[in-house]
Amino acid sequence: MDSISPKTLRLVLILVVLAFFVTLLNLLTIPNPLMRPFMRPSATPLPVVPAPGELGADERATIEVFKRVSPSVAYITNTAIRRDRFFFNTFEIPQGSGSGFVWDDKGHIVTNFHVVQNADTILVSLQDQSAFPASLVGVDPDYDLAVVRIQAMPSHLTPVMIGSSKDLQVGQKVLAIGNPFGLDSTLTTGVISALGRSIKSMSDKTIHDVIQTDAAINPGNSGGPLIDSFGRVIGVNTAIVSPSGSSAGIGFAVPIDAVNRVVPHLISTGKVPKPMIGVVLLRDSLARKWKLEGAIVQSVSPNTPAADAGLTGIQESETGDIYVGDAIIGLNGEKIQTSDDLLRLLESKSPGEEIELSLKRGGEERTVKLKLGLQ
């Protein structure tokens, strides 16, 4: 058999390769379903559909409020200094973060107490990305409020507008601006879900007249402002109710009327003067168990306004019998049914202010006047 020459072999290989490419080209150009994954049609950007009109009035108002208020909202980080137990080196560890807002042009920033609790260093970042170390001015754990101060030029500071919480209504639109999960300048909207709520503060004291909202409040929103539709601050976001720790449609804010009463004291003196009568009150659960009405005086501290006014607490006779002393059933004409009612009414009073207490002892009622002391 004659051998195939190299020239002929090359020609055959060239023909085989050409046949392969011709076959492949035919397969790619034939609409074969098996080959569709290999086919890429050409594509162009979709046409932009023009808006049928302008944004709604409500949307424009929300955008305007956000633009006006967001420069006032700050991002606050809290770090603690720790020492290495082996090498005695010091280092900073992050403890938490939250939000705050500019109170005035002197650099005072309002936030939650739990945002700055146990902080060794505090850093405040504004919307323009400028960051300033902050010093702690004052705290009030009973209201979960704190004030820090930064050394910033007034041109960097945009103080908020303050509203009022006494005329709020359920269903009223509200906006929350903060830094949830470290994401700065985040806006959420909702309504006031309820008014007059009570929650426990960091000091286990009851905060009264708290605002409940369904505006999403997540970790990092704490200390940020709750705003009405006019752009006025009506509360300070402080807590959420959620098993997962994220927003579940139930958030709470300290009412701005309480904030506006507390913050000036924190700026001026670093603490809030608390009025006191000078009594220890019986737990409400025990009072209800014994079917007692009012705030029951358990004991009276000596050299206090209550002692000077002749108030009497619970006493035990030599035979072991218990005698209930005074029950406080009114303050300046307002009825008191529980110890919480009394504490709520005292919150709006100042040391040195004269009040009138309505008392009940042994079925007989009387009134006494006294000047509140300083706690």
Low-confidence segments, ≥5 residues, pLDDT <50?
A: 87-94
Spatial arrangement of strands, main beta sheet: 1-2-3-6-5-4
CATH class of the largest domain: Mainly Beta
The overall average pLDDT, rounded, is: 84
Number of separate structural domains: 4
Superfamily at the CATH H level of the largest domain?
Trypsin-like serine proteases
Layout of strands and helices, then pairs:
Layout: H1 6-29, H2 57-69, E1 73-83, E2 90-102, E3 108-111, H3 113-116, E4 121-125, E5 131-140, E6 145-150, E7 161-162, E8 173-178, E9 186-200, E10 206-213, E11 225-228, E12 232-240, E13 251-255, H4 256-269, E14 275-276, E15 279-281, H5 284-289, E16 295-300, H6 305-308, E17 315-316, E18 322-323, E19 327-331, E20 334-335, H7 339-347, E21 354-361, E22 364-371, E23 373-374
Parallel strand pairs: 7-12
Antiparallel strand pairs: 1-2, 1-4, 2-3, 3-6, 4-5, 5-6, 8-9, 8-11, 9-10, 10-13, 11-12, 12-13, 14-23, 15-16, 16-19, 17-18, 19-20, 19-21, 21-22
Summarize the structure.
The chain is 20% helix and 37% strand. With 375 residues, the chain is an alpha+beta fold.
What does this structure look like?
With 375 residues, the chain is an alpha+beta fold. It has four domains: 6-36; 71-156, Beta Barrel (Thrombin, subunit H); 161-269, Thrombin, subunit H, CATH 2.40.10; 275-374, Roll (Pdz3 Domain), CATH 2.30.42.10. It is 20% helix and 37% strand. It is built from seven helices and 23 strands. The chain has helices at 6-29, 57-69, 113-116, 256-269, 284-289, 305-308, 339-347, and strands at 73-83, 90-102, 108-111, 121-125, 131-140, 145-150, 161-162, 173-178, 186-200, 206-213, 225-228, 232-240, 251-255, 275-276, 279-281, 295-300, 315-316, 322-323, 327-331, 334-335, 354-361, 364-371, 373-374. The strands form five sheets. The protein has a six-stranded antiparallel beta barrel. Strands 8-9-10-13-12-11 form a six-stranded antiparallel β-barrel. Strands 15, 16, 19, 20, 21 and 22 form a six-stranded antiparallel β-sheet that branches. A hairpin with a 4-residue loop joins strand 5 and strand 6. The longest helix has 24 residues, at 6-29. Residues 87-94 have low confidence and may be disordered.
